Amino acid sequence: MPLKREAGWYKDAIIYQVHVRTFFDSNGDGIGDFHGLAQRLDYVQEIGVSAIWLMPFFPSPLRDDGYDISDYKSVHPCYGTLEDFKTFLSNAHDRGIRVIIEMVANHTSDQHPWFLESRSSQDNPKRDWYVWADTDTKYRGTRIIFIDTEMSNWAWDPISKSYYWHRFFSHQPDLNYDNPAVREEMWNVMKFWLELGVDGFRLDAVPYLIERDGTSCENLPETHEVIRELRKKVDDHFPGAMLLAEANQWPADLRPYFGNGDEFHMAFHFPLMPRMFMGLRLEDRKPITEIMQQMPEIPASCQWCLFLRNHDELTLEMVTDMERDYMYDIYARDKTMRLNLGIRRRLAPLLDNDRRRIELMNGMLMSLPGTPIIYYGDEIGMGDNIYLGDRNGVRTPMQWSGGWNGGFSIADPERLYSPPILNPVYGYQAVNVLSQKRTEHSLLSWMKHLIQIRRSSPVFGSGSIEFLHPANHRILVYVRQLGKETFLIVNNLSSAAQAVELDLRRFKGNILIEMFGKNIFPRVGDLPYLLTMGPYQFYWFRLRRI
Amino acid sequence: MAEETLLTDDFLRQLINVGEVDIVVGLPTHNNAKTIDPVIRAIQAGILKCFPRERVVIINADGGSQDGTPERVTGASIDDVWNVSKVYALRTLHSISTRYARTPEPGTALRTILAAADLLRAKACVLVSPDSTTIEPDWLQRLARPVYNDNFDMVSPSYHRQTSEGVLMRNLLYPMTRAIYGHRIREPYASEFAVSGRLATDFLAKETWNEDWGRVGAEICLTITAITGNYRTSQCFLGAKTHPDRSGSDLVATIRRTVGALFASLDSNFPLWSTITDSQPVPTLGTQSEVTLEPVRVNRKRLREMFATGVAELEPIFRSILSESTLSELKRIAGLDVSDFNYPADVWAKTVFEFAASYHKSVISRDHIVQALVPLYRGRALTFLLENREGSEEDVDRSVESLCGEFERLKPYLLEVWADRK
After folding, report:
1. ipTM
2. Residues of B in contact with A496 (CB under 8 A)
3. Same domain, B260 and B318
């Protein structure tokens, strides 16, 4: 039974990002599948998340882990069938878990029938479904995104003897959104999945839909027009369905993707994420408060999507050169860890497997304004394998137990789509769901508790935020408020104990209730409110006037 | 613990908020509102440009300004610097201020800043003068980098000076320090310098803080501590150094603060300096650029008169300080016409050494001995200015080098009078 798509459901959601291939292999072929995912929905439900975001599971040559789609309306045979997907969707909905899928709208695989037709001759009816040119000189002002692999955004097609435009890998030709037939066909794709019951789409690479000479070919007004058109169709036909933008842009360019509440419902907060890591290592709230202050207001119906890590590299495109150098020096000294303009590492290794830092970062993820996303495996502190190439090192098999293949598959280990993590610190024998479920103080148990508290109030998802500025810059403090509920969040970004005095006079008379232990702290008075905080400690307080 | 009583509760609270830092930039002030703004801007720009990743704090130790100097320090907005320099800081930059006394006392200001640096576990502490109007953002790097990155314990400056600037330094403090301690540090008493956290901590624990001369002459004591201890010293070229209007400055107080402390240091360090027979260059970092010297304007008549009057009026005191031959030479010089006036280098070196020995033996009140040197210094200053009035910077350097040579050559004489005089 599909869940009713209530308006704004995404604002209080907690999203679990998972790749079908990586989660659980039910048929022993070494590759995760929908059957397996459906079998592990109990676990997803246990964590406490309310939505799953699935990475691409469509037929594809898999030269970019499924982001090179060759058929938008089917399921890759490795992962099962469309029926398997429907079963999974139904089971998820039965558990109150919504499902968001990928919509890789900007480009297809070069093996997609549309492209095969388009390249077959210059007068093919689908010729202008893609962006073709006789020379590679158009759109010169456009940056190259995959700088480690691509020399140009144009690739020569020997069949039709012309160049085609691609913002990502050369085997991913960009669709031509100036063509109404393309827009209509992509809407048909979305309609197909929405009719099956999916709750929303993550639209991949949205800033790049339209190209214009003399521009950066990013964030163009015409692109926003395409999005508005899609959104209207979604609202008209599938009210409550959600669109999430992947627009890795600076704040000023990111805000327009919400439009007047008539474009995306949600967008990833790309500028914030690297600055959370930066603030932690600098032991200084400045990078976080500064970027938050730069972020313009968004329409009431819209929401930021917050994340610490995902399936891609920790992108450093939206930071200054100086900040990028700092991040590389601190988080990716080994150059193998770097990819394009980012760092291909998981959360736990990034934070030196320091439990306190992992908790603090997750605490901020859950308490800053937005809908948090947890990348599969980060809830148990999985590691990565930077030697696997591209971003495959953060897409290794989920570690379910200390047994055969980490409980991911019964296949021969050599047959797995990817070697599991094996090292003594992060390997499946040390880090796995089974052992953490049995331990009250494991990271998994702690994450469940955190999520439970987060879900206990809509303040976190929908409340306002106001930063306080105590003189101690190592302490990041903000007040979240919704209606009559007020939460005070205090984070110590420092590796050392800190004292901080908070000016809480306007809350005079309230007592603070620490939300994890439910303990009462002294009543707020006229004097500065003194807190002493251990290294990387954080407090969530509910303010109560009794 | 000295710092426990030195730092006010309010200042301590500010330090708690700042927390551990990499670099402290100390700014001792007293009524410097006229010059402080460009200095602060240069410091902030220097931090943004050269130390964007480091934890840096600007600490103002104020001696009771009535002109709003501390407010200017703490209120200076980093945004102004960003807008001009387009350089961005990764971190919070704190500017804090404390009023250490109702009356200014440079030694206490320095002690306050060093105590703060010690508490904040700073790796480097840079002192900047609030009236250094020629300061450039790069100064911060030139001073701090050798300490912060290369493990030096002290970096003293080397300035381009006009001939009429730094006369006491070039005629007494540098030559004497060099001859005595064997280190060619051009500015042993500097208003800009950098020290390591280690040196700051060790210096704070020195007994000299219990002596008047130690408190008053803290800056030069710090240099001497660095030279005589197991510390790595260096110097760096900074650039032009000019002072704003000096007409109101008190030469007597300056000489007490510097020469008095230098003389006093000789007592406890005798076993060390008495064995040093020559001087060694100190690693000097950076490149020196040329500066065009302005012609010297000097009131020769007045300086000569002050010298001659001093020699005449203080003759009874000089009799207990100086040898007969030196005194008679001074009387001869005092009788010279201004056009022929010349206080030769060897006589000046002997004069200073005899004063030092008398100070050691406290033949009269030590304070009176130091004060009695003032008119004689004026005579030497007149000679220096006349000799170099049309000289280039190189000429001036040669003249200073020659004087240093005299001090070094005559050092055995100091040992002689140090031992013989009763």
Report:
1. 0.75
2. 19-20
3. no
